[in-house]
Amino acid sequence: MARIDVDGLMLDYELLGEEGAPPLVITPGGRYARDTAGVPELGAELAQAGYRVLLWDRPGCGASDIAFTAPSESVMNAQALVGLVEALGLKDIRMAGGSAGSRITLMAAARMPQNVRKIAIWWLSGGPVGLAGLAWFYCGDQIAAASKGGMEAVAALPSWADQTARNPRIRDILLAQDAEAYIDTMQRWGKAFAYSDETPIPGMAPADFAALTMPVMTFRSGKSDMAHTRRTSEWVHELLPCSSLVEPPWSDQEWNYVSTFPIDTAKRRGRFERWPLLTPMLTEFFRD
User: Fold this and answer.
1) d(Cα 89, Cα 158) in Å, to the nearest integer?
2) Which of 5, 21, 171, 282 has the fewest other C-beta atoms within 10 Å?
3) Is 238 found in the same domain as 222?
4) pLDDT digits (tens, 9 = 90+) for 252-278
């Protein structure tokens, strides 16, 4: 593990594989850390396949710092990833991401398209109900806590427990916020998830998709997946100039199935634990 300052944020990251091998960035979803079950396992398999794999904790996830100055949490994460890639001197990168990680992958790639060789994305969050759920999941409990008990109540939320345990600075950063200003920020960040008939992914305009002219492998979401709707994945595919829409290596009920899994990093359990099933398809796609 290592830490690096990117625009004033200390980001936690790890590089797997041989130095000098083609770089490949993996970005997970939720607010899960880079060591969440399935993520390092996928990274290790791709490193074994010949890539220099970057695993990283997004701002507010794992052991990385957080700030509240960006227009949205997704913008903050995308900017952080661009800065991290630049700080590490990674060139001609391949990118892979699932769930929130797919959104951040696309948004980061749109900010540095000249440095991205190929992209693979799955579990694209979308749809009116799915996005409304994200607004509450990421921002609603924050607003409720701040309005009732100030920043002490926010810092005590279970949603910050893992981060503050890994990085005590997170608690200090939270307590340093003004509660009313924090509520305003969370309202803006929640609004950023609003559904639009103009784009399937909040934070990505049609022109942003059009700028991504590199090959993209878009995994079609399950029909039963209401968090990452099938139509969202198909719409993203339609907007990307060089996308291939492919079926994932699991059944239609995959998201509903893994949502029942316990989150236990020590026992290697979690919603991403089956991501290594993607290894053969990713390896084939990323090969030159």
Assistant:
1) 36
2) 5
3) yes
4) 999 999 999 988 888 999 999 999 999
State the virtual CA torsion across 268, 271, 274, 278 in degrees, nearest 10: -130
What does the alpha-carbon distance between residue 138 and residue 58 come to, in Å, rounded to a whole number?
Answer: 14
Residues 6+ apart with CB under 8 A from 77: 58, 59, 104, 107, 108
Which residues in the chain come in under a pLDDT of 70? Answer: none
Say if CB 3 and CB 9 are below 8 A apart. Answer: no
Distance CA 210, CA 199 (A): 12
120 and 19, same structural domain? yes
Give residue 219's domain range.
Answer: 2-126+204-286
Indicate if 179 and 225 belong to the same structural domain.
no
Is 119 contained in some domain?
yes
107 with 32, same domain: the answer is yes
Structure tokens, 181: 């200003």
Enter the pTM of the model. Answer: 0.97
Q: Total structural domains in the chain?
A: 2
